[in-house]
Every structure is written in structure tokens, then in C-alpha cells.
Design brief:
Radius of gyration: 17 Å
Strand order of the largest sheet: 8-7-6-5-4-3-10-9
Largest sheet: 8 strands, parallel
Strand content: 5-15%
Bound molecules: 6-hydroxymethylpterin-diphosphate
Number of strands: 10
Order of helices and strands: EEEHEHEHEHEHEHHEHHEH
Number of helices: 10
Helix content: 40-55%
Length: about 290
Amino acid sequence: MPGQSPVVIPRPAICGLTLDGTQVMGIVNVTPDSFSDGGDRFGLDQAVAAAQQMVEQGADILDIGGESTRPGAETVPEAEELRRVVPVIEAIRAAGIVTTVSIDTRKAAVAAAALEAGADMVNDVSALGYDSAMAGLVAARGVPVCVMHAKGPPKTMQAQAQYADVVAEVFDFLAERIDFAVSQGIARDRIITDPGIGFGKVLAHNLTLLRALPRLHDLGAPVLLGASRKRFIGTITGAEAAKDRMPGSLAVALHGAAQGVHILRVHDVRATCQALEMWRALQAEKQD
Ligand code: HH2
């Protein structure tokens, strides 16, 4: 859902998307075990229908993932991840959907095949750290990449959730990853940053990072926020089932928009777009 935001620091366009407002990235998990929607979109038809619906609801980007990265998740073999995501991206393009497609993967071979099938950008929750071939691939293909902070791999990250200063550590990590990406030939203006809400973080870390979002703009890159339906929302509100956490997710999304987040990664596209539209109208009114 394009639309200017008075608080966003404009960044160069990514895949033709102007980043002078908050864009909405709809999550399509082609997995049997994702924490909030595992199994819902595991079949090809369900995944493509979900993508189509999200586009109609206002998604600016579709994020297709074939490996759950929830705390404790096992790594999915490359062949299986390929089998899950490539046909979905091919079918999305065959259906005439022209929306920007992001491939959510840590594996270079999966990213390569996804780009071949029609994806436009890479979302790597390991920030180019899991697969040594990933940075070179992104550089060679000249596509945008999202680098996200995580404290260790999904299997063990929650056991490593200790920080002296979580904001400084996340900031320094992302700054180092940007430098690394640039050293590998990735254009600086194609790098998106993400604090990695829930990735090796307990409730207090997530809240501290959300309050400190404006600090991330000093990295000079677009900021992506993925908080939708995450555990900390259930901890605070008592919404035990992930699917019951949409209202809390909207509150976090609007907080992110007010802190100048460029891309919101969400499960509930329609609700998020409506909330953003209302928020923008109120912002505009305030400026009159
Ligand atoms: N969160 C998840 C997956 N990918 N990518 C980015 N850039 N930022 C995030 O916060 C992020 C992400 C986890 O959420 P989800 O995809 O809904 O669940 P699962 O990993 O269980 O499939």
C-alpha cells in the first residue's frame, strides 16, 4: 500500500517500490510447521491463492518462505526447501501477479532458483552468515537483500538470548553485516536492515528494540520490521494462539510506522493496510 509517511526517512527505491512511506510485506509460509500459520499454505494451490489474496488486500511485497525459523526449528534440507518454494513462485508469476516477490531463505541454491523462477529480492534471516555462497549470489544477481539480526541459529537462539546492551549489539551487528555485504560487491543502496524481533531475544529485548527503532535509521538503510503474531505479543496480552494476536500485531505495526519503519512484514495484510491508512490520514491532518 503506497503512501507517503511524514516520519519515514526516504531511501532509494527497492525493486521499484518507493521507500518514502511504509510498505507492507505479506508472509506466505509454504511450510507444515511455521509458528502461526504452519500447514495453512503448504499446498501449491493454497500458497498461490494466499498470495493472490494478499495482493488484492494491498500487499506491496510477497515474502515466500519454505523453512520455519521459529525458535527450536530444525533445518530443512535444500532439496525439500526448493520443492516447496520454486513451484509457488513460478505459479505466482504464471498467474500474472507482478508484485515484488521476496524469497525468505538462508540458502544460496534456494535463493538462486527462486530468483530464476521470478523472485526479485532475498530475505536472509542469517544476514548472509549461514551460506558462504549467499553474498556472492546476491552481488552477482544485483538484487536487494534484507540482513536480519539473530543471536545464533533458530535451533539454539533462545538459549543465547543474553546481551549487555541489546540495542548497541544489534546496531553493531547490522553495521558489520552492511560492511561485509558491500565488501562482497552488494550495492549499499540494495541492503535492507532488520532488528530480528524474537530471534534470540526475550520479551524485554524485543520491547527495548522496538522502542529504539529510530536508532536503526543511523545505519543509512531501509528498516524492515517483522513482529507479526510473535510470541512476545502473546506474553503481554495473554493471546495464547498465534492467530489470536492480530490486534496486538497491529499495535506494533503502527508503532513501527510511527518510528519510520520502511517495510512491515505481516501475516494480516488487510488489517495492517487498513490500520496504516487510518494512521496516515491522522498524520496528514496533524500537519495541516
Ligand atoms: N521472522 C520470521 C521469518 N522471517 N524475516 C525477516 N526479515 N524478519 C523477521 O522478523 C522474520 C523473517 C518468522 O516468522 P514466520 O515466517 O511467520 O514464522 P516461521 O519462521 O515459523 O515460518
